[in-house]
């Protein structure tokens, strides 16, 4: 993708906030980089055809209609691990390569899982709000040591979360469609059927990859099997949890608390999401799983290498 004079002709559009090392690294290689981290979908649709590559995080939604406007688009670089904000079928149809930064945010998301769990177990955010509002009153919490943690989805993040929890003295149960004896032995855990995990876990951490947008791993039937004193954590994908079933379970006291870094709409705009956020035993963060300096530095380094390699291959 060079002109006859040897200059790079490929324009790269960055539509979400990324570490500036990625932008400067691409520019140093001679690429024209336009950094528009707050671009709207409407504006993006008007200019996407001017670029051969686009870098996105989770905010930008690359729909089929949008991708069909990118006539010269050859590469989508997802500066993160999930691709559910990208219409993968459309990308394949159009011959657009999609690359990610798999593994770059494992540590950060696993630490967030632990933080949400401890916060809810000790009611830290809830009590902090009370103190700020002038209600200086104690409330009983629970320890996590000696309890059982069930991890749904035992990949990189699921394993790292389980590793932390096992180190703190928790028994580990795991459910995954692909079982790895090596991984599970690393946390002295065991794979069990989903129903067993739900019935026996004090804490449940959802750490799955969204394959089918319509699939709900946790619906009304599953919430009926979860222990009433259990805490549920989800930092992977909101779509795997049925929102109505979740809110119903919380209101009825069928689960103790819910912590999440993901919502069905971001920012939230549905009645069920507003009901959820208003509950005292619910803790929601605005999709900050990879929002650490260290994770973004790893993303930038990995993306720079992957983008340069992919563009070189596509140009050959």
List the helices and strands and how they pair.
Elements: E1 11-14, H1 20-28, E2 32-35, H2 41-47, E3 53-56, H3 64-67, E4 75-78, H4 88-94, E5 97-100, H5 106-122, H6 124-132, E6 148-152, H7 156-167, E7 171-175, H8 181-185, E8 190-191, H9 194-200, E9 203-206, H10 220-223, E10 231-234, H11 243-252, E11 257-260, H12 271-277, E12 282-284, H13 293-315
Parallel strand pairs: 1-2, 1-3, 3-4, 4-5, 6-7, 6-9, 7-8, 9-10, 10-11, 11-12
Describe the structure.
The structure is a single chain. With about 325 residues, this protein is an alpha/beta fold. The protein folds into 2 domains: about 10-100 and about 295-315, 3-Layer(aba) Sandwich (Rossmann fold); about 105-285, 3-Layer(aba) Sandwich (Rossmann fold), CATH 3.40.50. It contains 13 helices and 12 strands. It has helices spanning about 20-30, 40-45, 65, 90-95, 105-120, 125-130, 155-165, 180-185, 195-200, 220-225, 245-250, 270-275, 295-315; strands at about 10-15, 30-35, 55, 75-80, 95-100, 150, 170-175, 190, 205, 230-235, 255-260, 280-285. The strands form 2 sheets. The chain has a 7-stranded parallel sheet with strand order 8-7-6-9-10-11-12, with helices on both faces. A 5-stranded parallel sheet has the order 2-1-3-4-5, with helices on both faces. Helix 3 links the parallel strand 3 (about 55) and strand 4. The protein is globular, with a radius of gyration of 22 Å. The mean pLDDT is about 95.
Largest sheet: 7 strands, parallel
> What gyration radius follows from the Cα positions, in whole Å?
22 Å
Order of helices and strands: EHEHEHEHEHHEHEHEHEHEHEHEH
Cα end-to-end separation: 9 Å
CATH class of the largest domain: Alpha Beta
Shape: globular
- Percent helix among the residues? 25-40%
Structural class designation: alpha/beta
CATH superfamily of the largest domain: NAD(P)-binding Rossmann-like Domain
**Kindly state the mean pLDDT as a whole number?**
94
């Amino acid at each position: 993708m060079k002109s006859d004079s040897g200059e790079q002709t490929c324009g790269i559009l960055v539509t979400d906030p990324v570490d500036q090392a990625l932008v400067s690294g691409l520019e140093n290689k001679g690429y024209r980089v336009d950094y528009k981290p707050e671009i709207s979908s409407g504006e993006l649709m008007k200019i996407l055809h001017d670029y051969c590559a686009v870098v996105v995080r989770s905010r930008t939604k690359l729909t089929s209609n949008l991708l069909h406007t990118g006539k010269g688009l050859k590469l989508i670089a997802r500066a993160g691990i999930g691709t559910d904000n990208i219409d993968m079928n459309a990308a394949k149809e159009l011959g657009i390569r999609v690359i990610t930064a798999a593994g770059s945010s494992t540590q950060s998301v696993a630490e967030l899982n632990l933080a949400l769990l401890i916060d809810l177990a000790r009611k830290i955010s809830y009590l902090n709000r009370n103190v700020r509002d002038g209600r200086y009153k104690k409330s009983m919490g629970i320890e996590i040591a000696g309890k059982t943690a069930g991890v749904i989805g035992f990949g990189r993040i699921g394993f790292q979360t389980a590793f932390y929890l096992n180190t703190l003295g928790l028994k580990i149960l795991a459910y995954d469609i692909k079982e790895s004896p090596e991984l599970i032995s690393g946390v002295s855990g065991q794979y069990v059927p989903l129903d067993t995990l739900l019935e026996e876990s004090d804490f449940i951490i959802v750490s799955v990859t969204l394959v089918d947008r319509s699939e709900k791993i946790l619906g009304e039937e599953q919430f009926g099997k979860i222990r009433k004193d259990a805490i549920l954590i989800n930092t992977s994908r909101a779509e795997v949890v049925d929102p109505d079933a979740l809110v119903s379970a919380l209101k009825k006291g069928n689960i103790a608390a819910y912590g999440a870094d993901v919502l069905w709409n971001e920012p939230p705009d549905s009645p069920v999401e507003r009901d959820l956020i208003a509950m005292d035993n619910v803790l929601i963060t605005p999709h900050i799983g990879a929002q650490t300096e260290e994770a973004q530095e790893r993303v930038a380094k990995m993306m720079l290498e992957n983008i340069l390699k992919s563009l070189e291959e596509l140009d050959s």
